[in-house]
Amino acid sequence: MSSYSAKNMGLLKFCVLFVFLSKCESSKILFISPSLSNSVVMQAGRLADLLVQNGHNVTFVIPELSSKNQHNGTKLAKVIRIGGIRDYWGEALEYYLSDTWINKLTPFYKMIVMAESQMMFCRDFLRKRNEWNHLKDEHFDVVLTNSLDFCDLGYAHYLEINAHIWLVTGALHEFNYQVLGVHHPVSYIPTMEDNLKGTKMGIVERAHNMYMWFQAHLLRNYYYHRAQSVFRAEINPNFPDLHELGSKVALTFVNDNEFLDFAGPTLNKIKFIGGAGLQQPQKLDENWEVLMQKGKKGAILVSFGTAFNPMFFPPETKKSLIRAFQHFSDYHFIFKAQKDDSVLVQLLENTTNVDIVEWVPQSDILAHPRLRGFISHGGMNSVVETALRGVPVIVLPLFFDQLRNAKMVEYREIGLFLEPENLSEKNLIEKIDRLLFDPKYQKGAKRLAKLIATSPNQPDKVFLDWTNFVIENGPLPELIPNSVNLNFFQYYCIDILCISCLIILAIFYLIFKLSTLIKNRNSKEKLE
Length: 528
Fold this sequence. Notes:
Strand content: 5-15%
CATH superfamily of the largest domain: Glycogen Phosphorylase B
Number of strands: 13
Radius of gyration: 28 Å
Number of domains: 3
CATH architecture of the largest domain: 3-Layer(aba) Sandwich
Strand order of the largest sheet: 3-2-1-4-5-6-7
CATH topology of the largest domain: Rossmann fold
Number of helices: 19
Distance between the termini: 128 Å
């Protein structure tokens, strides 16, 4: 054989080996991320891109829970959108937010309305399964789903995917606690929904937190029983128990950070990955750089996320915001809002230190050296980005987990919060003044950023390593605690306490009877 042929044969062997190794390393992964909000889809999309960049074949399915949220989230994965379903979620959300500025606490019936909108969507999505039945034939190695309402558990089982990983878009919900087998410690961990409580609670606050926990427990049961009935009606009367399917998920990835959230009980299968998939900050283009240089002492970013449009702020609220910004003339405010908002346009006629923009490269701006603060709605994605970049923040919480996140920010001393119903020019000026001139917030933000940056548990690595581990090993029953099989009385040993109390009462009763008997005998002897 000539040396030329030998070289070609060697090259051929190398190519075959390379293709073989590539096939071995590349796994088929499915994401199911309902369009609850653009930010939820974007967070899941970043994770999908991270897996694609590491050699995996990723399919990203977006059930259009809300037709208004059209962001695909991912730049690299194959996207499949399942639409054509009535926007139950959008209709319910409009009703849910109808009196956000009047009622701080959402009535329970509104939560039921939101839950029912998800169940109606779940039913209709299953009725359109002819559009996504082909996913069964893909034989995915693992599925990652957003933990929302029990329906994702049913989708994963229906598609016959062996390994299932949960994605939690914020801090752990009471729903996750109960399904995974970690009972929620109401004495020091606030519940998730519309609850402005921190980890330090007095007796009245703990009583209220317990009430909120009970309400969350009722809501979870509503989700569970409604979802179970939907799957048994639409798919199979013997469809497996969704609660049991949830307890068997291989892992739960939480879009949170252990240094940011309130410290509480967890499990080996719960992994914190807040910030995973976020790109390194990029240099701003010329137009954005001009904005960042406008303020004599720096810039402040104002953004209320993707789920809420500032156009719906009451006129008085908009007036309070702009007047407060005008007070700090040495700082330039970059306010994400709609430029055609007539109220804002009128208020800004003679204002030189505020610019309205309809989109912001938020992560890049948060990393800019001239940024002095951030005014946010307190969504978990924004709070995590703020923590990563070491920027102090003022949170104006509107709904859902944002109230809890606001107390979390306060507890970690990386910022302050102001309740929407208390938003006035005077109160906002006071908060901004404290944010800018009280050194503890800058110090707290920088320390938290350092802790996250130097932690041995880096989000990208944790996410990739553990996902690959599940792909290689399948479901991980070894990580399921036996607490999933215990009821409330068994978990807290209330049955033992009751038996112990009965035994103690029986002993006291016997002692009483014995002493009475002895006393009566002594009295009888004296009489004789």
